Amino acid sequence: MTRIKFCGITRPEDAVVAGEVGAxxxxxxxAESPRRVQTDRASEIFAASPTLxxxxxxxxxxxxxxLRDASRAxxxxxxxHGKFSDGELSExxxxxxxxxxxxxxxxxxxxxxxxxxxxLADAVDAILLDTSIAGTSGGTGIPFxxxxxxxxxxxxxxxxxxxxxxxxDPGNVGGAVRILxxxxxxxxxxxxxxxxxxxxGLMRAFAKAVRSAxxx
Length: 216
Description:
The protein has helices at 12-20, 39-48, 63-73, 86-95, 118-123, 150-159, 173-180, 200-214; strands spanning 3-6, 25-29, 53-58, 77-80, 99-107, 126-133, 136-137, 161-164, 184-187, 192-194, 197-198. It has 216 residues and is an alpha/beta fold.
């Protein structure tokens, strides 16, 4: 079955609900964002649902600072938004004792133009497809064209794990699962009542929709 990650968690109680509805991962944002939390708060969130895998969302910066924040928060997986150089990816790989997820932006204006994604796939443990608008990915609340990305998704799955994000919600996630068959779906704004505030009812509906679409 397709796994679920609830991202942009800012409250321990939302992490508890994530565990109750069957998520496998929760994510906190440790970069500039309306959902950003500090490392001590991230630790509290992770502790509230200790069976879930712990993901930290990062944007480019000094590698040493990123590693410090990952360690202080107790992150098991670093999700990397933005352009990281080959050298930075190599340094993170050598220094971080956990998984790296690379984010591949899908431009809503050019949904069939994916660029040279193979080097990123070779450098990380999973590729996360996320909507990009004017060069910015993450938290857009808008889905990309899943049909246009299907050939890319199939190619990625040959080399890496595939995660799908970008504008997912309880009403549309079933389509993303059926069309792209990812290892995991990643949701943030689509289950919120306000930025960073998750709605338990929407979280439950999202998990139910993923389970229904995953049945072959």
